Amino acid sequence: MIHMKDVMKVYENGAVALNNVNVDIRKGEFVFLVGPSGAGKSTFIKMLFREVLPTSGILTVNGRDVIRMANRDVPYLRRSLGVIFQDYRLLPDKTVYENIAFAMQVIEAPRRMMQRSVNSVLDIVGLRDKYKCFPNQLSGGEQQRVAIARAIVNNPAIVIADEPTGNLDPDTSWGIMDIFQRINAAGTTIVMATHDKTIVDAMQRRVIAIEDGTIVRDEAQGGYGYEN
Ligand code: ADP
Ligand code: ADP
Fold first, then answer.
1. What φ, ψ does residue 41 adopt, rounded to 5°?
2. What is the C-alpha to C-alpha distance for residues 81 and 78, in angstroms, rounded to an integer?
3. In this structure, which residue's CA is closest to atom 26 in ligand 2?
4. Strand 81-85 to strand 30-34: parallel, antiparallel, or no bridges (unpaired)?
5. What interface predicted TM-score (ipTM) does this complex get?
6. For residue 110, what are the CA distances in angstroms to 12, 75, 98, 104?
7. Of 52, 163, 167, 222, which one's alpha carbon is 20 to 30 angstroms from that of 72?
8. What keywords are annotated for this sequence in UniProt (predicted)?
């Protein structure tokens, strides 16, 4: 699913965000990306959907060569991924339904199929009765569930999440993790950057720790490994 070989990212100002990173992530894995602030986690995540272009190395995602890919092929890469951010990033003037449907309109899905898919992902995240709400009428946890619904509506092979529980209280965070576990159990690969020690320690999934742009630990079933 994801193959990185000797991946390096040096930003324009000379900051080395990733230094010779080697990682393989297979279909169906659930991977936590941990490490101190500034370690390179966001850079790692952003490279996967080509928001950031590696400076050197090899990066393939879903069988696509992310580095040599033509700009016109980037939308196809992104459509095969579901991306979730700490700050939800919903469209404020669209309803829950429209926020999710919008992701499908982009791929010109027929209307019937679109309704069925949107209702189905609303069921998965438990928000069927809120479909007419606007984002500012929802709690943070509900907004994040809408963002997850939007991320999975096109059946992505990989869900990528950058600190998805970073703004949420512990109970709400576990609601989000329950959804991720179900999505993962259905076969979707999940890569999630997080500072949430409780969640990582409890779930005992694969943990990749990055410090100063280098992978310092990669365990099949690990804990958070930092005090916090
Ligand atoms: P993390 O997500 O683990 O906090 P980042 O990937 O955001 O780490 O950052 C890794 C390093 O790259 C840091 O030193 C950071 O300052 C630097 N960095 C991140 N984004 C940029 C950028 N757009 N321009 C220059 N340096 C950056
Ligand atoms: P009700 O008010 O009984 O829920 P609606 O006609 O508003 O009936 O909604 C019926 C179905 O259409 C719902 O399942 C909903 O998910 C879906 N729906 C809601 N908004 C839209 C929209 N903007 N475009 C297409 N379908 C929608």
1. -65, -50
2. 5
3. 115
4. unpaired
5. 0.76
6. 43, 19, 15, 9
7. 163
8. ATP-binding, Cell cycle, Cell division, Cell membrane, Membrane, Nucleotide-binding
Cα-only R_g, the chain: 17
State in Å: Cα 15 to ligand 1 middle.
7
* Substitution candidate for ligand 1 out of 10, 13, 43 with most atoms within 8 A of CB: 43
Contact 41, 9 (CB under 8 A): no
Q: Is the pTM of this model over 0.80?
A: yes
Q: Which of 44, 48, 65 is CA-nearest to residue 158? A: 48
Residue-wise pLDDT for 100-133, tens only, equals: 999 887 677 788 889 999 999 999 999 999 999 9
Count of other CB atoms within 10 angstroms of residue 23: 18
Give dist(CA 96, CA 145) in Å, integer: 10
CA of 97 from ligand 2 middle (Å) equals 8
Q: Ligand 2 centroid vs 116 CA: distance in angstroms? A: 10
In this structure, is the dihedral angle defined by the CA atoms of residues 4, 34, 187 and 79, taken in order, positive or negative? negative
